[in-house]
Amino acid sequence: MSRQLFASLLGLLLTFSISAQDKLPFKVEEISSFDEPWSMAFLPDGRMLVTEKKGTLTIVTQQGEKSRPVGGLPDVDYGGQGGLGDVALHPDFANNKLVYISYAEAGVGGVRGAAVARDTLVEEGRRSSLQNLQVIWRQYPKVLGYGHYGHRLLFDNNKHLWISSGDRQKFTPAQDMQSSIGKILRLHDDGSVPDDNPFVNYRETDSFVDGEAIYQQIWSLGHRNPLGIAFDLNDQLWVIEMGPAGGDELNLVKRAANYGYPLVSNGKHYDGRPIPDHDTRPEFAAPAITWTPVISPADLIVYRGKLFADWRGDALAAGLSSQGIVRIKLDGEKATEVARYGMGARIRKVTEAPDGALWVLEDERGQSQGRLLKLTPKPR
């Protein structure tokens, strides 16, 4: 390719990029970039913890200055969709310095599963480390394969830890009450099971199996690949998950509810085989929204700040194949997509900063690293 032709193509690309950004309701500022970034969490002083799938945790300032990799992480089984995943701070982090991380963990015989560990963040000069690592949850059972770990983390106001657990591309375990696969789970912050979980004091007639033990961690079941989990302003729990070929879902998660996968879905199997739609099985909880074509949701937040004043209470979903941010109006138990903001890249994570700005992690972009972006409203 001649230099002149290359310059012309580059000019067209830049013009398109600027034109696309002109249509967005926010200013996009590039802060830094990472190798396969997956999640981030804000520290009390405004710095961020950022995870990279290959097993690196970094502290980065809002000006883009990176620390050395944080030491003390567990061994991560990197491959496919697996690796280092989510990061969340304990609600009392300012006093106890506890950090929670999710990751793919290897087992015996080539199997693997998600796990969650908590550690104490110790900062000593330029070197930081996680110390006193304690694994508080493991996906059961470990299985073959590299997909659908889920493992998003969320704390509620009562310091319960919520975990989204994917179906690991194994279909039927999502309905198996002796498995934590394909479920939404609720734990205490130390990994123990709350006494008021829905299946702690079940009667045999209430169980999903005949007299057998069930996983008491379970809050809801029948989920496929739940990659976003958030509470709305009324403390209702919403989960967004990838469907199969079509049928991505936003679900309002209720106690002990069954969301039907793989028995129902508004998508179909990748080989073309049909799956009955949700409306054929009313005994299963129906999604608030389904998407076909899919948006490939990777994360979900509910905006609480004042900077984007018109968005307060709306959900924001990170889109991979849709390469953007999907804004969803929440109204009681109803939800409606109201806008879609094209970002020109696969979006892995959206996080609200303490000041109300939005921070976005792009997924890996071919040979390019995923960028960390700051979004602020454009002047009116």
How are the secondary structure elements laid out?
Blueprint: H1 3-22, E1 26-34, E2 37-42, E3 48-52, E4 56-60, E5 84-89, H2 93-96, E6 98-106, E7 112-124, E8 127-138, E9 150-155, E10 161-165, E11 183-187, E12 218-221, E13 225-231, E14 237-242, E15 248-253, E16 289-291, E17 297-302, E18 315-319, E19 324-331, E20 334-342, E21 347-352, E22 358-362, E23 370-377
Antiparallel strand pairs: 1-23, 2-3, 3-4, 5-6, 6-7, 7-8, 9-10, 10-11, 11-12, 13-14, 14-15, 15-16, 17-18, 18-19, 19-20, 21-22, 22-23
Largest sheet, in brief, is: 4 strands, antiparallel
What CATH calls the topology of the largest domain is: Neuraminidase
How many independent structural domains? 2
> What is the share of helical residues?
under 10%
Helix count, DSSP H or I runs of 4 or more residues: 2
What is the CATH architecture annotation of the largest domain?
6 Propeller
Strand order of the largest sheet: 1-23-22-21
Question: How do the helices and strands follow one another from N- to C-terminus?
Answer: HEEEEEHEEEEEEEEEEEEEEEEEE
Number of strand elements: 23
Distance between the termini: 43 Å
